[in-house]
Design goal:
Helices cover 43% and strands 20% of the residues. It is an alpha+beta fold and 427 residues long. It folds into 2 domains: 200 residues, Metalloenzyme, LuxS/M16 peptidase-like (Cytochrome Bc1 Complex, Chain A, domain 1, 2-Layer Sandwich); 180 residues, 2-Layer Sandwich (Cytochrome Bc1 Complex, Chain A, domain 1), CATH 3.30.830. A 6-stranded mixed beta sheet has the order 1-2-6-3-5-4, sandwiched between helices.
Length: 427
């Protein structure tokens, strides 16, 4: 009988056991990765496209394309598309990020054959009808006007602008950019970007041979390329970056939004796992130093966090929080102190052990379904890396010690090199 008064035995967290997908390269250039899970009746089909940017880069076109792709085709209205998908209890979701756009279908396996013609129609025959475009522009302009009243939204806009500069990563929406959207340019971008030789299809769930064959009929045999893929040049990142203080004063503000940022590295760099570890110690989880100091001890904020984010063409480090307006200067001072301590004071073995267990446990806990395996694979695939990254990353975390923490902190964390943005009051 189980003795519930006795805690289960502890053991070290081992390496992740990640599923290696089956890989198919179709005649039309479409790449397919299949993640098989026979016990799942739900199927996920994610069509991912590399974003194409013409010169000069105008990312608002890409955002509009991604968000409006299912707003009507030459044979179906947006209402008809929604009704066909909803009737079968499925979801068809467009998404956009800095580097890729995607269209994802969630469906029970028994309904896939009825939904593939809809997805095929959207990917080949979207028309971006003018009435829907007008509605998109009007709604986004109204949303922008409301959002600009919020200090956290404005701080995020300034963060993108002053960190990345004038490129796809630093793009911020404005009314003028929405006003210049036109159907002709969106259709032109759609024809360049939404084609098989610019697409990777991730299939997960119970992908039987017959289901895979249906996907190949629609998206290999019945999908041709319009043209060669345009090779987008990498953006010029951080060219105008300066570690300056930017303050947007709001006299009536009850709180200030703070964003600190600087260029950093992404997961292609050998130091990335170690930087992630030190970032977690500083502000990357609920028990971090910044949370203990600024939330628990000082009571300046409800939450503060730091992130070392990786993007395709670089990386960045950022700290973000909203604090009581009268505590803005004090918060900046405490952040400076915590970064200084990180660089100059040796971390205890107990703290390092705690952060190790948290980081490794979080990675292990993040693989809870076949869809999680897909996400892990994508997170390295689009950086040109293999699943072996997770083995080497976990090994780097296990070997972290106080010497390595000091080394990484002094190399990658420096308060004086941070861009400092405050929207509210600098009190």
């Amino acid at each position: 009988m189980l003795n519930r008064k006795k805690a289960p035995a502890q053991h070290e967290i081992n390496n992740l056991s990640l599923l290696e997908p089956a890989s198919i390269t179709c005649e039309n250039g479409l790449k397919i990765f299949v993640f098989q899970s026979k016990e799942m009746d739900l199927i996920k089909a994610e069509f991912v496209f590399n974003n194409i940017f013409n010169e000069p880069e105008r990312p608002h076109l890409n955002t509009c394309l991604a968000q409006m792709i299912k707003e009507g085709t030459s044979t179906r209205s947006s209402k008809q598309i929604a009704e066909e998908v909803d009737y079968l209890g499925a979801y068809l979701l467009p998404e956009y990020n800095f580097d890729q756009s995607s269209l994802t279908l969630y469906s029970l396996s028994r309904h896939v054959s009825k939904l593939l013609p809809v997805v095929h129609d959207v990917l080949l025959n979207s028309t971006f009808p003018q009435p829907e475009l007008d509605t998109f522009i009007r709604n986004n302009k109204q949303s922008l006007q409301i959002s600009l009243q919020r200090s956290d939204y404005q701080a995020r806009r300034l963060f993108y602008k002053y960190l990345f500069g004038e490129n796809r990563y630093g793009n911020i929406p404005t009314e003028d950019k929405y006003n210049e959207l036109n159907r002709k340019e969106i259709l032109s971008l759609y024809r360049q970007e939404i084609q098989p030789n610019n697409c990777t299809l991730f299939l997960s769930g119970n992908i039987t041979p017959s289901i895979l064959a249906e996907f190949r009929v629609f998206f290999e045999k019945k999908w041709e390329n319009n043209q060669d893929v345009v090779q987008t040049l990498p953006p010029r990142l951080f060219e105008t970056f300066k570690p300056e203080l930017i303050v947007e004063e709001r006299k009536e503000a009850l709180q200030s939004s703070i964003r600190l940022a600087m260029p950093s590295i992404n997961r292609t760099h050998e130091d990335f796992p170690a930087v992630q570890f030190v970032n977690t110690m500083l502000g990357g989880y609920f028990g971090s130093r910044l949370m203990k100091n600024i939330r628990e001890e000082k009571g300046y904020t409800y939450s503060i966090n730091s992130v070392n984010g990786g993007i395709k063409h670089g990386g960045f480090f950022t700290i973000s929080t909203e604090v009581r307006a009268e505590a803005t200067k004090s918060t900046l001072h405490e952040i400076q102190l915590e970064i200084s301590n990180l660089r100059n004071t040796r971390a205890s073995d107990a703290e390092i052990s705690l952060v190790k267990n948290y980081v490794l446990g979080t990675v292990l806990g993040s693989v809870e379904s076949i869809f999680s395996h897909v996400d892990k694979f994508k997170s390295v695939y689009f950086f040109g890396m293999s699943l072996d990254y997770f083995r080497t990353s976990n090994e780097a975390i296990r070997t972290m010690d106080s010497d390595r923490v000091l080394e990484i902190a002094n190399k990658y964390f420096d308060y004086d090199r941070l861009l400092k943005i405050v929207v509210g009051k600098l009190n």
